[in-house]
Write a structure and sequence with these properties.
Length: 165
């Protein structure tokens, strides 16, 4: 099957196959997902699809098997959650954490990553350099600039500025 033939095949059958899988699965979004994934797999095998003579049946079968596989994964996950019990209650982030994350989001991506690796993951400058591919001096520069930027964004509003400052 040529690229053009496959594109035509897709255009002619995608809606029908999605409708068929929707009826089989009872979930429109799941039907769309598995049909698209089946077409992606079919694209890689378009020459074999041409020889089989039943490409629509092949796509439908692959989509069904993908759905069944997803069900199995979800079922195993649900069983695992039941065996382990409900997850423990975790408090939401406090205002300080929210403020810190918001301030970090305002930093350039490389600075944000460097600051997180150093202060949250507790990595050394050398470890950060190895993980990110940056030089140690660049890591240090990101840390200095990141601390400076955060100090400006995270000033404690309870502390008043000295008069005349």
């Amino acid at each position: 099957m040529t690229v053009e033939e496959f594109e035509d095949f897709y255009a002619q059958t995608v809606a029908r196959l999605t409708g068929q899988l929707y009826v089989m699965l009872g979930d429109q979004h799941e039907a769309q997902d598995v049909v698209q994934e089946a077409f992606v797999r079919g694209w890689n095998r378009r020459r074999q699809l041409d020889r089989s003579g039943q490409p629509e049946a092949w796509i439908r079968t692959v989509a069904w098997r993908l759905a069944v596989s997803r069900w199995r994964v979800r079922r195993r996950a649900a069983d695992a959650w039941q065996r382990s019990g409900a997850p423990p209650h975790v408090e939401g982030p406090g205002p300080e954490s929210v403020a810190l994350v918001d301030a970090l989001r305002q930093l350039p991506a490389k600075q944000r990553r460097t600051m997180t690796l150093h202060y949250v993951c507790d990595l050394t400058v050398e470890q950060i350099a190895a993980e990110t591919g940056l030089s140690a001096s660049t890591v240090k520069t990101h840390l200095v600039r990141g601390r400076t930027a955060l100090s400006l964004r995270l000033q404690d509003p309870r502390i008043e500025e000295a008069p005349g400052a």
